Amino acid sequence: MRSSVTHAVHTKAVLNRKVLRTGTLYIAESHLSWLDGSGLRFSLECPTICLHALSRDQSDYLGEHLYVMVKAKFEEGSKEFVADEEEENSDNDVELL
Fold it and tell me: How many CB atoms lie within 10 A of CB 71?
């Protein structure tokens, strides 16, 4: 069985209010991933996503965006952000424009 994947190009990623870059967002049944042309990327499996919402508020500094709250700790050791599900009490905000 083939899973469905939706993607959006020219998507800006913001992690904890820090703008990462513009890249491509991929949404599948089991995960949400984002990557840019330089190799910077992150991938979130559904169990790590504790809240998601679409904001259409144009007065917000981000404008329209997808808001995702993640119950995981992000390690910034390389160009890849890895969500560590083991970390308790560590919410991170990911916003995608």
Answer: 17
Report pTM.
0.71
Closest CA to 40 of 27, 15, 23, 65: 23
Give the CA radius of gyration of the chain.
13
Beta bridge partners of 55: 65
Give the pair of three-digit tokens for residue 1: 């069985």
Residue 19 pLDDT level (bands cut at 50, 70, 90): confident
Residue range 41-97, pLDDT digits in tens: 888 888 888 888 888 888 877 788 888 888 876 666 555 555 555 544 456 667 665
Of 26, 48, 37, 43, nearest to 81 by C-alpha is 43
Residue 47 phi, psi dihedral angles, 5° rounding: -60, -25
The residue type of 12 is: K
